[in-house]
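#onboarding

Welcome to the new folks! Below is a worked example of what a typical request in this channel looks like: someone posts a single protein sequence, and someone else replies with the predicted structure as tokens. Don't worry about understanding the tokens yet, we'll cover that in week two.

Example request:
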Amino acid sequence: MDVTAFFIDILKPPKDDLFLKVKASSLSLQEGDVVAISSKVVSIHEGRCVPRDFGKKDELVKQEADWYLPREDMRDGAVVHTITNGILIPSAGIDPLGQYYVLWPENPQKSADELLAWFKKEYSVKNLYLIMTDSRSVFLRKGVVGIALAWAGFEPLFSNKNRIDILGTPSGGSQTNIPDSLAAAASFVMGEANEQTPIVRIRNAPFIGNKEHISTDSFSSTIEEDLFEPFLKNVGWQKGGTAKN
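Example response:
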């Protein structure tokens, strides 16, 4: 698998044209490639930026979140933990950038679908895939890894249910999470500071586009269905501004 980051000119908040920056870059694409794109540049492209006001950040976080834990529930009050777009993420994914806060795209999946359509047309590639990335801390580990906010052009789960392991026995019910796996690789080469490489091309990615072992299971899970349900359920979640029920 080849994972290559591409430099683009800076997108300046509150709104800038991502497409112009990408077209001016050295990005090239071919059939079967995966485009990974940072959610931050997508948000700036969509104008999802608000003036930075430290006194109002928590209210902004609560409005953007589906569910949140009040800052006072944290040991040192460092962050407001949230569940936003089905993802456990601090501060509803909101990041400071200069004089602005950059929010997540309002509808990450819709944005991913539209971006994939643009890349296919602009680069004349029929079989193309896309993931939109961000990064977060991992439980009981320091540092951040990439995650996928959304994906387009492929099914997110690769099923191992009907495969045989190296000793000739059924491999069980495990499933490979394709979007987050690719996002981790892409975010690693994107960097986390001033690299200016928010576009990554992944070539020769395994599993993606494989029709034989596609899982029809839902990619997202509710708290009640989740493996970590005891930890997620037994805290005082409060409804955020986007909670549906």
